[in-house]
């Protein structure tokens, strides 16, 4: 196809024909090839751009991962630091707690020791008070007691300003007795303990002491019914009857012996030089409940002498009963 014109505009260029006509097909072909080249070049450039973009994306991803790793490591380091700090605080707290525990334990130990010591002191005071109370009860009826010159055998004499010493002034070999002024009432409803001691001086060859019913016994001869006594040769007499003979129980010059009764149990107590005769286990007869007994002593040999102690300071510890 031919177009009668001097030039034709096909795109940006004008291609004149040699004969004055324009070759449209040639122009289009040339332009098409050029276009294809441009398109191919553009596609290549796009491909290169895509590759670069992909590389950049990979690098960016790597950077992100690296950054994340760095951040993570940073966090780890931060956590490690924080953890280390926490451990230090925990260690410090444990030290403080241990120190406080040791101080508390020591304080508790000191407090416990103090409490134990205080308790020991209190118990000692209680024991002392109980001991004193028992002694007071034991001496309730004997505190102001002494030998009665009006109820005394003529062969005996009472000497000393307190009327506690009895001396045998006669020459006959016969039992001679004296009673104390004040009796004690044996009452099993009472918790009183009645007790007294005698110390033997001079010869002390033959004697017996204890407590008895005054109205049923004479001043000469051995005490009988209603008499509970302890003889110098070791004999124990219960209601006027001999119960036991033991050489270990015998006593003489320089010895201190005692006799008593627990009103609540009616058990009789015998002692020698501050020690109780544990193997001796006797009781007052039930028929003598609510009866008044008088302390007495009987001497048999010339120059025999005793001194009574009605309290409060005995060789035997009443608190041990």
Automatic annotation (TrEMBL):
Protein's recorded name: B30.2/SPRY domain-containing protein
Highest taxon of the lineage: Eukaryota
Domain B30.2/SPRY stretches: 125-315
Pfam families: SPRY
Keywords (A to Z) from UniProt: Coiled coil
SUPFAM superfamilies: Concanavalin A-like lectins/glucanases (SSF49899)
TM region(s), chain numbering: none
InterPro entries hit by this protein: B30.2/SPRY (IPR001870), B30.2/SPRY_sf (IPR043136), ConA-like_dom_sf (IPR013320), Gid1/RanBPM/SPLA_SPRY (IPR044736), SPRY_dom (IPR003877)
Coiled coil spans: 30-73
Organism per entry: Heterodera trifolii
């Amino acid at each position: 196809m031919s177009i009668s014109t001097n030039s034709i505009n096909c795109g940006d260029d004008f291609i004149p024909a040699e004969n004055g006509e324009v070759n449209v097909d040639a122009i289009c072909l040339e332009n098409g090839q050029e276009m294809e080249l441009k398109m191919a070049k553009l596609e290549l450039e796009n491909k290169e751009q895509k590759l670069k973009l992909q590389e950049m994306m990979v690098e960016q991803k790597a950077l992100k991962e690296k950054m994340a790793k760095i951040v993570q490591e940073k966090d780890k380091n931060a956590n490690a630091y924080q953890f280390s700090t926490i451990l230090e605080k925990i260690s410090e707290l444990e030290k403080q707690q241990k120190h406080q525990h040791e101080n508390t334990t020591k304080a508790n130990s000191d407090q416990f020791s103090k409490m134990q010591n205080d308790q020991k002191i209190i118990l000692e005071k209680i024991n002392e008070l109980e001991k004193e109370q028992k002694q007071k009860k034991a001496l309730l009826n004997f505190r102001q007691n002494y030998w009665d010159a009006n109820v005394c055998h003529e062969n005996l004499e009472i000497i000393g300003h307190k009327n506690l010493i009895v001396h045998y002034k006669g020459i006959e070999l016969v039992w001679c007795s004296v009673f104390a002024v004040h009796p004690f009432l044996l009452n099993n409803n009472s918790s009183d303990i009645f007790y007294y001691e005698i110390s033997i001086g001079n010869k002390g060859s033959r004697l017996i002491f204890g407590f008895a019913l005054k109205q049923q016994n004479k001043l000469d001869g051995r005490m009988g019914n209603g008499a509970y006594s302890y003889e110098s040769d070791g004999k124990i007499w219960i209601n006027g009857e001999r119960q036991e003979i033991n050489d270990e129980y015998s006593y003489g010059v320089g010895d201190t012996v005692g006799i008593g009764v627990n009103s609540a149990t009616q058990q009789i107590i015998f002692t020698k030089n501050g020690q109780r005769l544990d193997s001796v286990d006797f009781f007052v007869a039930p028929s003598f409940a609510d009866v008044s007994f008088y302390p007495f002593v009987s001497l048999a040999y010339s120059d025999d002498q005793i001194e009574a102690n009605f309290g409060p300071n005995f060789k035997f510890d009443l608190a041990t009963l």
